[in-house]
């Protein structure tokens, strides 16, 4: 199970590298709309790196127990959801897990609790370590 999780994280990282490759065109690239992630076999994978949480939007079903696997690439980060009393700390280069089960449909914000990471992202980053959990 652990080996499969590591392979999936590597695959996601590879896909991110390919998707973010240089365009070679003139001018600035238009950012792609945020994709909506859903659980695969009861697992949602999140990656935090350089001030950005990916994916930015996650949809789950109310009452469904889901495991969030969070990989912190560059430094330690957290996955925090205040309304659900979740605060998972993940060290640099590590993957942590937390079970999430929400009975009430709604929209919840997840973010990194490390000082300065939420909203504006890390120094020099154009991203913010914040995303949206949609419970349907």
Tell me what the CATH architecture is. Answer: Sandwich
Provide the residue-averaged pLDDT: 78
Q: What's the order of the H and E elements?
A: HEEEEEEEEEE
The CATH first-level class comes to Mainly Beta
User: Helix proportion of residues, in percent?
Assistant: 10-25%
CATH superfamily: Cupredoxins -  blue copper proteins
Number of domains: 1
Query: What overall geometry do the principal axes of the alpha carbons give?
Result: globular
Total beta strands = 10
**What are the low-pLDDT stretches, counting only 5+ consecutive residues below 50?**
14-31, 121-126
Distance between the termini: 28 Å
* Structural class computed from helices and strand pairing: mainly beta
Largest sheet: 4 strands, mixed
Tell me the number of helical segments per DSSP (H or I, 4 or more residues long): 1
What do we call the CATH topology?
Immunoglobulin-like
Which percent band covers the strand fraction?
Answer: 35-45%
Radius of gyration: 15 Å
């Amino acid at each position: 199970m652990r080996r499969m999780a590591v392979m999936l994280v590597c695959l996601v990282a590879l896909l991110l590298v390919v998707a973010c490759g240089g365009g070679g065109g003139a001018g600035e690239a238009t950012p792609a709309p945020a994709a909506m992630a859903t659980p695969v076999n009861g697992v949602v994978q999140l990656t935090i790196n350089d001030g950005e949480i990916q994916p930015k939007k996650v949809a789950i079903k109310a009452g469904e127990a889901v495991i969030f696997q969070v990989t912190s690439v560059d430094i330690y980060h957290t996955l925090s959801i205040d309304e659900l009393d979740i605060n998972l700390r993940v060290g640099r280069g590590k993957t942590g897990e937390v079970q999430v089960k929400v009975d009430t449909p709604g929209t919840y914000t997840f973010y990194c609790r490390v000082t300065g990471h939420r909203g504006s992202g890390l120094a020099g980053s154009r991203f913010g370590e914040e995303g949206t959990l949609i419970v349907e």
